[in-house]
From TrEMBL:
Gene3D superfamilies found in the cross-reference section: 3.30.300.20, P-loop containing nucleotide triphosphate hydrolases
Functional note: GTPase that plays an essential role in the late steps of ribosome biogenesis.
Domain EngA-type G: 3-167, 199-374
Chain residues that bind GTP 1: 9-16, 56-60, 119-122
Single GO term (MF): GTP binding
Record gene name: der
Keyword line: GTP-binding, Nucleotide-binding, Repeat, Ribosome biogenesis
Origin organism lineage: Bacteria, Pseudomonadati, Pseudomonadota, Alphaproteobacteria, Rhodobacterales
Family listed: Belongs to the TRAFAC class TrmE-Era-EngA-EngB-Septin-like GTPase superfamily. EngA (Der) GTPase family.
PANTHER family: GTPASE DER
CDD domains given in the database record: EngA1, EngA2
Stated name of the protein: GTPase Der
């Protein structure tokens, strides 16, 4: 799952129709547990060779007194927060309406990547509406018909370069396409964190690790139930909170877990809840129980968080129960390095959710991981660094022909992804790639975030 696409627009433009077309029957995240509050529908979308998460802001009934406009605006803002790309949809038969302009305005202000789709364009009667759509200043409209499946190739073509940027690793596996990185590149002098949006945090871990206790601590009020019984019914999903001056939205996976009698079912559920939270999160706190740390389930979710490109902080809870703290810490660090080498450099913080000890350090680790995850390194600095790395350890010369690493640039953030233009990229051994990734992590001080590095051929 390389990126998240939100379908945005006023009611009746065809969002649900497109959602159904992209997702088909693969509503991956349907929850068979009754009573889970959800107001954004999401599914696993496919378009050609692209795989992504689709969020639909339409068609969900919510019991609220809010006006339709207010609700749509709020949902849109939330979807924008969660998504990498927003597909703003219009009804081309109607042209641009005042309501469309309201949405366009939100998107221009809040979303980094917006694509514009003029839906219902299956007939020439829509031409005028398509031309009008140019006036929104959101780029060229893509003509589609969600109902008839037209324009899907154009939509694919528009998503492709973005998807490529969002997951440089996936792009390396897909057929090579030339991607223009220049637009992304312009942002290199941008401040480290460009938007003061809440940091999206998920606390994941096995049942009874202390997730609810920790979240209660963070929230500072006893809004969630806690107790020794695993799997108490709770409903909260995302909890907005200001913690030590940082705005966060904390996803309570325990709260999404429903009453389950059978332990096995519970385990399965908490894993899938964890997966879901990981997808929404920017920073994933993997909460371990000091008495049973690094369980299979913990390892799986930590690995998933890394593969999904999330910043990761490992927190070891119930530290108050530990007598031999020094020894235990050494043991934990050893286990961490051995069992989760893919998270090299991620912080390991000891906490007690019960007493509150260590929570300030946890806060700081989250903020820092988030900052690093968003970091952009200027191209000039990268290339200076690359030159130094090449001089210190030249790449191998298989058959007497040295692999040339010519030019390096950061193609995206969240997490940081870099591309190096290379002759014979396939000849570069993994050990050399690791040398570069580890060097990037150390020299640019980027702990706790996955780093993506791909090599593109340029002979
Ligand atoms: P939403 O409120 O934005 O989710 O819109 P819906 O997906 O529910 O669609 C609203 C109406 O527009 C429905 O009657 C759809 O059948 C219709 N519709 C959706 N896409 C198209 C299209 O490409 N062409 C035409 N003619 N109608 C469409
Ligand atoms: P969850 O299933 O991960 O949400 O775990 P809970 O928050 O419900 O906690 C499970 C049990 O562990 C409860 O009995 C908590 O009181 C206990 N617990 C949570 N944090 C700590 C801690 O820091 N120290 C100790 N000693 N117990 C804790």
């Amino acid at each position: 799952m390389s990126f998240t696409l939100a379908l945005v627009g006023r009611p009746n433009v065809g969002k649900s129709t497109l959602f159904n077309r992209l997702v088909g029957k693969r509503l991956a995240l349907v929850d068979d547990q009754p009573g889970v509050t959800r107001d954004l529908r999401e599914g696993e979308g496919r378009l050609g060779d692209l795989r992504f998460t689709v969020i639909d802001t339409a068609g969900l009934e919510e019991a609220t007194d809010e006006s339709l406009q207010g609700r749509m605006r709020r949902l849109t803002e939330r979807a924008v927060e969660m998504a990498d790309v927003c597909l703003f949809m219009l009804d081309a038969r109607q042209g641009v309406t005042p309501a469309d302009e309201v949405f366009a305005d939100i998107l221009r202000r809040k979303s980094e990547h917006v694509l514009l789709a003029a839906n219902k364009s299956e007939s020439n009667a829509s031409d005028a509406g398509v031309y009008e759509a140019y006036s929104l200043g959101l780029g060229d409209p893509i003509r589609i018909s969600a109902e008839h499946g037209e324009g899907m190739a154009d939509l694919h073509a528009a998503l492709m370069p973005l998807a490529d940027g969002f997951d440089a690793r996936a792009a390396a596996e897909a057929p090579q396409v030339d991607v223009e990185v220049s637009e992304e590149d312009e942002g290199e002098d941008a401040p480290l964190i460009t938007r003061a949006r809440p940091v999206q945090v998920a606390v994941v871990g096995r049942p009874n690790a202390g997730k609810s206790t920790l979240i209660n601590r963070i929230i500072g009020e006893d809004r969630l139930l806690t107790g020794p019984e695993a799997g108490i019914t709770r409903d909260a999903i995302a909890l907005p909170v200001e913690w030590n001056g940082t705005h966060m939205r904390v996803f309570d996976t325990a709260g999404m877990r429903k009453k389950a009698k059978v332990q096995e079912k519970l385990e399965r559920l908490s894993v899938s809840d964890g997966l879901r939270a990981v997808k929404f999160a920017e920073v994933v706190v993997v909460l371990l129980d000091v008495e049973i740390p690094f369980e299979q389930q913990d390892l799986r979710i930590a690995d998933l968080a890394e593969r999904e490109g999330r910043a990761v902080v490992v927190a070891v809870n119930k530290w108050d129960l530990e007598d031999e703290k020094q020894e235990k810490l050494a043991e934990l660090k050893e286990a961490f390095n051995r069992l989760l080498p893919q998270l090299k450099g991620a912080p390991l913080i000891t906490v007690s959710a019960k007493t509150g000890r260590g929570l300030d350090r946890l806060h700081d680790a989250i903020v820092r991981a988030h900052e690093v995850w968003n970091r952009r390194v200027p191209t000039a600095r990268l290339n200076q660094w690359l030159t130094g790395m090449l001089e210190a350890h030249p790449p191998p010369a298989p058959g007497g022909r040295r692999v040339k690493l010519r030019y390096m640039t950061q193609v995206k953030t969240r997490p940081p992804a870099f591309v190096i233009m290379t002759s014979f990229p396939e000849k570069l051994p993994d050990s050399y790639k690791r040398y570069l990734v580890n060097g990037l992590r150390e020299d640019f001080d980027m702990p706790g975030t996955p780093i993506r590095l791909t090599f593109r051929s340029q002979s």
